[in-house]
Amino acid sequence: MLIDILTIFPNLLASPLEEGMIRKARQDGSVTIHPVNIRDFATDKHQMTDDRPFGGGEGMVMKAEPLALAVESARRADSLVVLLSPQGTMFDQAAARDLARRDHLILVCGRYEGVDERFRESFIDCEYSIGDYILSGGELAAMVICDAVIRLLPGVLGCVDSSLNETFSRPLLKHPQYTRPALWRGVATPQALMSGDHAKIADYRFIQAIRRTAERRPELLQRLEFSQREKKILREHGLAALLSDERDALCAKEKICWPLP
Ligand code: SAM
User: Fold this and answer.
1) For residues 114 and 61, is the Cβ–Cβ distance under 8 A?
2) What are the structural domains, with CATH classification, of the chain?
3) Cα(86) to centroid of ligand 1, in Å?
4) How many CA atoms lie within 13 A of 10 on its CB side?
5) Residue 135: CB within 6 Å of ligand 1?
6) What is the model's pLDDT at position 142?
7) How far is the CA of 108 from the centre of ligand 1 (A)?
8) Residue 259: pLDDT band by 50, 70, 90 thresholds?
């Protein structure tokens, strides 16, 4: 995969691209990332990439032409041009999976009051927001998207299951995790995890994942589909209601009292 990141602050991207999983993915050739400095495409002698808004008002607006030239310098037939914007579709794991299937992403980072609307209308294929808050620029949002997408590329995570069994790989939060020592400051690791019985551990973790999701994100459970084995476990734990017509009403309740261990 190739990712071009269009920004007026390319140095902001340096550290996140040079550490951890992204560094490794770049080194093994799973992804190539090009920071593109929009200023290099400014058309006036002062290299201006922004100007005052027509109609007045606060702040500056990113000019259309440098942005258009920067996109045109990077764009190929298979490119998806993405604008980072607080007004965009909310970025989630499904969006990350969708972007991970693309060969070429162009991520456009806004600054100031955002980009000239005519550029947005002519060049942008889709817009993503990373949350209902305002950042000073799209660079950190672009890094969030890069991280979420690159870890889904084949071979990037050592263990394939790592990205299949995570929170949001299906509408379910992941179970709590424990590591050594077994007894930490008087708090023991749950006995089921120490049993060495893989089936028992898997069942325990599934129920804990259901419990955590019910407590924190009950609306996710409305979309969750269960395997035959999971249905059996739910029944054994008195959670058959999750398999019935009552599920929607249960999940919509603000506080759910689950008969969980
Ligand atoms: N004036 C704009 C508005 O009210 O909608 C906000 C502009 S913001 C200060 C500058 C840039 O930061 C945006 O163009 C966008 O690229 C980026 N940005 C800010 N918040 C974001 C968010 N939640 N998700 C993605 N990008 C964001």
Assistant:
1) yes
2) 2-150 (3.40.1280.10), 183-252 (1.10.1270)
3) 5
4) 11
5) yes
6) 98
7) 11
8) low
